[in-house]
Amino acid sequence: MDRRTAARTVGRRASGLPTRRPREGPAHLSCGTSAFSPASTIDLDALSYRHLTAHGVSFGFSRHFESAPILEDLRPVLLPAAGRGEIRPVIDRTVGIEQFGEVTEVLRSGDAVGKLVMTFA
């Protein structure tokens, strides 16, 4: 993300786009979801009028019993695709655990593009 990016995270209880961008340039909207909250709504007209682009989705689960059935259903599709190289993680950098300070600074700066991986050797 470049420095003009406005990152916002909203839960399902929010309706529509939560904020306007502070200035021209790209923007990122991250919508958090929960299996136990009401359905989310996003105003597609507002998305279009603000010249925003939606790229993919990300889901998280707080309990193993929520994620296990979903992951099991995805296994026959995702694992072969990953094996063929069609699905790959985006890794910003890999550092040893002794460099945790660097990871902390990158997270605070918002400059990470992808996952930050720490190795334990």
Strand content: 15-25%
In DSSP terms (H or I, runs of 4 or more residues), the helix count works out at 3
The coarse overall form would be extended
CA(first)-CA(last) distance: 31 Å
Biggest sheet overview: 2 strands, parallel
Low-confidence residue ranges: 1-23
Tell me the strand order in the biggest sheet.
Answer: 1-2
Helical residues, percent: 25-40%
- The overall pLDDT average reads 69
N to C succession of SSEs: EEHHEHE
Helix-strand makeup class: alpha/beta
The count of DSSP E runs of length 2 or more, i.e. the number of strands, is 4
**Radius of gyration based on Cα positions:** 18 Å
Q: What is the number of domains? A: 3
Give me the secondary-structure topology.
Layout: E1 6-10, E2 27-31, H1 44-49, H2 64-83, E3 91-96, H3 100-109, E4 115-119
Organism: Brachybacterium aquaticum
Protein name: NADPH:quinone reductase-like Zn-dependent oxidoreductase
Region (Disordered): 1-32
Structure description:
The protein has 121 residues and is an alpha/beta fold. The protein has three domains: 1-57, no CATH class; 63-88, no CATH class; 89-121, no CATH class. Helix content is 30%, strand content 17%. The protein contains three helices and four strands. It has a two-stranded parallel sheet. A two-stranded parallel sheet has the order 3-4. It is extended, with a radius of gyration of 18 Å. 2% of the residues are buried. The model is unreliable at 1-23 (pLDDT under 50).
